[in-house]
Amino acid sequence: MKVLVTGFEPFGEEKINPSWEAIKTLPEEINGAEIIKKRLPVSFKAVKKKLPKIIDEFMPKVIILTGQAGGRVNISVERVAINVMDSKKEDNDGYKPEDEPIFENAPVAYFSTLPIRRIVNTLKQNKIPATISNTAGTYVCNTAMYVALHHTTLNGLDAKTGFIHVPYIPEQVLEKTQPSMSLEMIEKAIEIAIKESIKS
């Protein structure tokens, strides 16, 4: 079994992105599953182009996308991705969409196919603050989740797919009043999410 786990490059004023920092050190294998780690660009257009190619190259049975959500206090396991790109800030390519569909004539939304409730419950049992989130926003994270679910659905791929938002890590909030979570806890949370997702 192959598990695709993605994080994002830094964006905005940030020098690092905790989503990528947390997954790049994951083991190559977890409970017998091969772990494939990929860093995605913070670019609406590039994610739409690159993510389907990565999925087709590796044909994973589980796809866990991760991203930074500064200001959130816990691990947020996303329930739904919506078919819209809308941002007050530019992506890393300088693109700033407003009320644009990700894909024309496509479903308005897709629900995660990860075992989101089980993931959250197991995280809490391991003393990791976690919740199910009902909004992945309208920035590149939501686009990545939608693109992955649209691609797997459209092509009949058997892959549990979803998105997890992670908070800032402490070094990012030294000069701002924002919640944070240790990188070690985020790493543990993602590993737990993988283990729960590869269960039958």
Automatic annotation (TrEMBL):
GO CC, one annotated term: cytosol
One term of GO molecular function: pyroglutamyl-peptidase activity
Cellular localisation: Cytoplasm
Reactions accelerated catalytically: Release of an N-terminal pyroglutamyl group from a polypeptide, the second amino acid generally not being Pro
Location, primary (coarse class): cytoplasm
Entry-linked Pfam families: Peptidase_C15
Domain of life of the native organism: Archaea
Enzyme superclass (EC): hydrolase
Record-linked Gene3D superfamilies: Peptidase C15, pyroglutamyl peptidase I-like
Active-site residues, Swiss-Prot/TrEMBL: E78, C141, H165
UniProt keywords, alphabetically: Cytoplasm, Hydrolase, Protease, Thiol protease
GO biological process: proteolysis
Listed EC numbers: 3.4.19.3
Family: Belongs to the peptidase C15 family.
Subunit description: Homotetramer.
The protein's role, per its UniProt record: Removes 5-oxoproline from various penultimate amino acid residues except L-proline.
PANTHER family: PROTEASE FAMILY C15 PYROGLUTAMYL-PEPTIDASE I-RELATED (PTHR23402), PYROGLUTAMYL-PEPTIDASE I (PTHR23402:SF1)
Protein name (Swiss-Prot/TrEMBL): Pyrrolidone-carboxylate peptidase
Organism field: Thermococcus sibiricus
